[in-house]
Amino acid sequence: YLSSGKLLEAEQELSDDEDEMEMEKRVAAADDKVDSDVENELGLSFGRGESEVKVDKSGMLMVKSERMVTGKEQVVKGRSSTKMNVKNGVDLNAELDPREMEKKAGKDWRKPMDADEAPYNCLQLEHVYGYRGHDCRNNLMYNEEGNLVYMVGAVGVVYRKEGHMQVFYSGHTDDVISLAMHPDKVLVASGQVGKSPVILVWSSVSMQTLSTLRGFHELGVAAMSFNKDGTKLASVGLDVDHSIAIWDWKKGTRIASSPGHTDKIMEARFNPVDDVLVTCGIRHIKFWSMYGDNQMRSKKGVYGQEGVQYTMLCVSFTDAGLSLTGGESGDIFLWKGTHLEWQFEQAHKGPVFALSTYPDGFVSGGKDGRVRLWSGLDPVKVFDFSTTTVTSILTPRIRSACWHDGHVLVGTMSNEIFEVDERNMTQRLLTQSHAGADVWGLDTHPKEDMFATGGEDHTVRVFKVASRKPSMVRELNGGVKCVAYNHDGMLLAAGLVDGQVIIMETRKLTPMHEKRSREETITDIKFSPDGIFLATTCIDGSLDIYDSTVEFELIGSASTTQGCSLIHLDWSTDGRHIQTDNSMGMHQYWDSSSLVEQVGADEVLGRADWHTWTCVSGWSVQGLIPKMSEPSGINAVARSHRRDVLAVANDFGLVRLYRYPCPYVGSKHKRYAGHSSLVANCRFTFNDKYLITVGAKDRAIMQWEHISD
Questions:
Q1: Which pLDDT value is given to residue 393?
Q2: How far apart are CA 504 and CA 149, in angstroms?
Q3: Nearest-5° angle of CA 576, CA 577, CA 578?
Q4: Within 10 A of 352 (CB to CB), how many other CB atoms are there?
Q5: Closest CA to 112 of 96, 128, 123, 100
Q6: What pLDDT sits at residue 458?
Q7: Cα–Cα distance between 669 and 17 in angstroms, integer?
Q8: Cβ distance 501 to 523 under 8 Å?
Q9: From the DSSP assignment, how many helices (H) and strands (E) are in the chain?
């Protein structure tokens, strides 16, 4: 596992940091020798100690020092014996006030012995909001226990309806784009994207990995299926030939392979009666069988009309072994062997994306937002989801549908999961996230366990942490890039992609003020600590301040270096200064009343008491960047309210935890995987019990329990 994908990259980066720290030790050899003599005499350990990269049972990657255990294991406190530095008589167990530490920036800063160690705090993934329906199909199913199995980002999710609880499979290192359920309804195969993508077979009950298949596909694994007795697994790649492989998954060996089709294959499934593999896609359907020495042979579907070729998007099978396919035209086709037997025209208005069978018939779902239940070949019930959407920019589309014990499980292109009781036709929303566009906006309520998110799907959404459910949704007239609560949580401001700033009251998310001072994207937005002023940064390099006491009138503007964008901002606790990051990596300070840049004020303002710290540069976070490197991989940081921990969101799908402040290059940290790529933002809840992260591309919102030592 450590030898694959981003985790190898993470391990190598960690090794580079260790090499840099070793060089620092050699430069300070004289002082180190004195400390070493003291340690040998007293039997104590000073400095960094030893570290190692460790993967826990959930697949989370972290850095472990000699004084901590992280992840799902018990958190172990440090040694209780008093450590005394005999050179200056400082008790190393005495806690330093983080505010005092921050004020001692620059030449007055005295480095604590554990300043560059990883924090004792750790994260445990508790809940994921959303589902990958925006670009995947037929990836939502029930297991033997009646629990839901699906994927979000780089994790597999097993959702228990009783208690609204989730458990996670975290073996993947990139986007999971395909799932297959074993005939025993316990084992699951999941495939990811990547240059050399991996297929993992795991238990949806124990969450343990049973087999790892790699070394054949390129770019990604688009579709998979187990055969009727579950001994073989078929997979389809995203390479130019859309190659098909047949695996003996228990042995981890590939027993057959063949080019699939020049056009994309949308789905592949074994017929549970005769073990024929059926693949369908752009202008084709093929029926595959094995012969001779594990050779694969295909036959094209015969439509009965010469030259007719339909695009097929999904496939399923009746109990008698007949094949059902859903077409781009909205028609459903029934096949006996390779021959078309029956065609139901306009079963849906638009493409049929989902098909699954049950004892009395089958279920279909389409682009028209409808799910149909069929008895035999007759439609008997229709569930309409066209009115469930909360955003007008994306029409509801059914991406997955399956039946189990009188319930129909439905996944939509809006990344929502519904369960429908076919007896009383009631719909129950199980999970929801943003849909159709990137998600960047995030802020937590200053007094309650809730948070708000903003996405380019034109919506602002509020979620409650304790219930792990969405609370409110408001559609705005443009894509949302950033959001911020005021000091008492009564107002919520949103910065839009088109330059608008909208201020809403939080009881019903009703817009109160709409301002437009810019024509380009608002990149960050924050209220002053007393809630009187609102500051925004823009992609055009502008810094603007609005006054809430005069209906948010624009009272001042400034600009950074020409050609640069302003990305992040923070207010000082007294409200007198603002710090910003620009796209050239410059950290700037501004007088908030005059908006004059405070050039050369790093030493003075570096000691200022900052109300929040979300800037990715500056003295307190300069240790996040390895030597001779650029900060481009860091998208967001968030300081805990206790001011002892710093969370970092990066481009590689990882969330990191550092001690705060973090001024030393090579500082150790803990890393957690879950998002598939580009973690866009992160924030601690008001009491530091949780960390919330959002993924820009996977549209996933992740709620991590923050375990504090």
A1: 62
A2: 37
A3: 140
A4: 28
A5: 96
A6: 94
A7: 11
A8: no
A9: 4, 55
Looking at residue 233, what is its pLDDT? 97
Output the CA–CA distances (angstroms, integers) from residue 534 to 123, 129, 452, 555, in the order listed.
Answer: 32, 29, 17, 10
Stated as kind and residue range, the H or E segment containing 90 is: strand 90-91
Which of 395, 365, 367 has its CA nearest to residue 382? 365
Q: Which residues contact 391 (CB under 8 A, 6 or more apart)?
A: 414, 435, 436, 457, 458, 459, 475
**Two structure tokens written together for 636:** 């967001």
pLDDT at 376: 84
Which contiguous run of DSSP H or E holds residue 605? helix 602-605
Cβ count within 10 A of residue 687: 15
Residues of the chain with pLDDT under 70: 1-110, 305-307, 389-394, 626-632, 709
Q: How many CB atoms lie within 10 A of CB 513?
A: 16
Res 657: pLDDT: 96
Name the 3-class secondary structure at 191: strand
| Residue 308 pLDDT | 74
> What is the token pair recorded at 48?
């960094």
Task: Say what the pLDDT of residue 76 is.
Answer: 30
Residue 441 parent element (H or E): strand 439-444
Fill in the amino acid letter for 644. Answer: D
Cα separation of 56 and 480, whole Å? Answer: 37
Angle between helices 5-27 and 29-42 (to 10 degrees): 100
